[in-house]
Amino acid sequence: MTKIYTHLNEILTLKDACTKDGRRLKASDCSIVKDGAVAFDDEKILWVGETSSLPSEYKNIKSINLKGHVLTPELVDSHTHVVFAGDRAQEYADRLSGTSYEEIAKRGGGILYTVGQTQSTSSEELFNIACKRIERIYSLGIGTIEVKSGYGLDFDKEFQISLVIDRLKQKYSPKIRIFNTYLAAHDVPKSFSSSSDYLKQVVLPLLKKLAPLEIIDAVDIFHEKNYFSAEDVEQLFTEAQTLGIARKIHADELNNNGGAEIAAKFSALSADHLLKISDSGILTLAHSSTVATLLPGTAFFLGKPLAPARNLLDQGAKVAIGSDFNPGSCHCDNVLMVASISAAQLKLNQAELWCAITLNAAHALGLISQGAIMPGMQPRFTLFKAESVSHITYNWGKNLATELL
Ligand code: NIG
Ligand code: FE
To answer: Taking Cα atoms as reference points, which of 266, 254, 292 lies closest to residue 104?
Structure first.
C-alpha cells in the first residue's frame, strides 16, 4: 500500500552522502529537502522531494501532513551488548576513584563478573530483560539494532544466548530490525589455560553448530592484550569466511594491536573502538570497505581520549558511531545522544554526524539498502518532532523521536 507524508519541515535525505559512499563528506551532503514529501510502499521509497512538486499520480492518495516534524533515515545502533544480567555500577564508582578497567578485570570484575550473573539467569528471563532494553532503544528512534552474544562464555550458554537474540529478531521483525552477532570470543573463562584453547574447544565448534541454523549474521572477537591474540582472530575469521559469515572486531581499543589491518585483510564489515589505531591502520581502513566504528560513549565512560576520528575521515574512511551499550564500559543505550555529544569533540560536520548513525552504521551491518531517503531504498525512517535537523542534535539528551504514522 502506498503511503505519503507531506509538509515535513525537513527531510534529511543524505542523497549526496550516499552517492559518495559515506566518505569525505561536506555538511551540504546532508541533502536536506525543506517542506518535504515522500511516497513509499512496504518495500521501497517511490519518490521524495518538495511537497509542492508531488507528482500528480500521488495526489489522489490520502496523505499524512507532518508539519512540525523532521524525517531522517532510520537511526541504527551497530554495536550493542544488550543481552546480559545484573549491573556493574560499583565498578563505575571504583573507576571514578582511579581504578582502571584493566585492574578491575584482573581482580575478578569486568566481563567475567557479568558472565557469572548471566549464566545464573534463565533464557526466558534474559529474553524478557532484553525485550525491555530493545523497546526502550526503539523509543529513542533507533529501529535497527545490532545485538552481540558474549556473556555466556560456555558452549551451552552462548548457544542459548544466540537463540535468545534470534527470538528477539523474530518478535520485533519487521518493525525493529535486529542483527545477531556471535561474540563467544569476548573473554577467556578462567577454566581454560589460554585463549586459543577456549577458541578451539568452544568458540569454533559452537560456530559450526550455529552456522547451519542460519541465525548468525556476523562473528565478532575482542582482540586485545590478555583477551584474544591476532592468531585467534585469524582462526575465527578464516572459519567464518569458509562458512560465509560476516566478520566484525573489537580492535585497537586499549592498545594498538594491528586490529584494523586484520579487519581489512578479512574484509570485515567493521572494526570497532580504534582508540589506539596506528597511522598505518588508519590508511588501511581508509582504502578498504571496512567501516571504522567509533564508540565515544565508551571512551567517556572509561575516561580515555577519543579515537582519531578526524584523521580517519580525512583519509577517506567510512566512519560510524555505535553506543557499545554494555554493563561495564558504557552503560548508555542512546546512540543519538552519544553522537550528538561527541560530534564537537570528534570534529564532525553535520553530514558526518548523521551518516555515522544511519548510512554508515547500516553499512557496518552489511545493510546497503537503507540509510538514505532516495527512490529504491528501503522505507526505514525515524520521525522527530522538531523544527529542523539541527534542532535534533542541538537538543542532545532530549528524546524528540516520535512513532511513525
Ligand atoms: O565493547 N571490549 C569488550 N567488550 C565491551 C565491554 C564489555 C564489558 O565491559 O562488559 C566493549 O567495551
Ligand atoms: Fe563492545
So the answer is: 254
The CA–CA distances, whole Å, from 18 to 48, 197, 318, 341 equal 15, 43, 11, 24
| 77 Cα–ligand 1 center, Å | 15
Region 3-73+371-402: CATH code: 2.30.40.10
SS3 content of the chain, % helix, strand, coil (to 5): 40, 20, 40
What are the residue ranges of CATH 2.30.40.10 in the chain? Answer: 3-73+371-402
List the grid coordinates of 333.
Answer: 543505550
Q: Is residue 105 lining ligand 1, measured as CB closer than 6 Å?
A: no
Query: What is the residue type of 376?
Result: G
Query: In sequence order, what E strands does 215-324 have?
Result: 218-221, 246-251, 270-273, 291-294, 319-321
Q: Is 327 in the pocket of ligand 1 (CB under 6 A)?
A: yes
Before 296, cis peptide (omega within 30)?
Answer: no
**pLDDT tens digits, 346-378:** 999 999 999 999 999 999 999 999 999 999 999
Residue 114 near ligand 1, beta carbon < 6 Å: yes
CA of 39 to the centre of ligand 2 (A): 37
CA of 404 to the centre of ligand 1 (A): 33
Instruction: Give the model confidence (pLDDT) of 287-343 as tens digits.
Output: 999 999 999 999 999 999 999 999 999 999 999 999 999 999 999 999 999 999 999
Q: Measure CA 366 to chain center.
A: 11
The grid coordinates of residue 70 equal 523532521
Say how far apart CA 75 and CA 142 lie, in whole Å. 5
Single pTM value for the model: 0.98
CATH fold for the domain made of 75-363? TIM Barrel (3.20.20)
Cell representation of residue 248? 566484525
Among 83, 118, 324, which residue has the most ligand 1 atoms within 8 Å of its CB, making it the best to mutate?
Answer: 324
DSSP 91-137: HHHHHHTT--HHHHHHTT-THHHHHHHHHTS-HHHHHHHHHHHHHHH
Domain span(s) for CATH 3.20.20.140 in the chain: 75-363
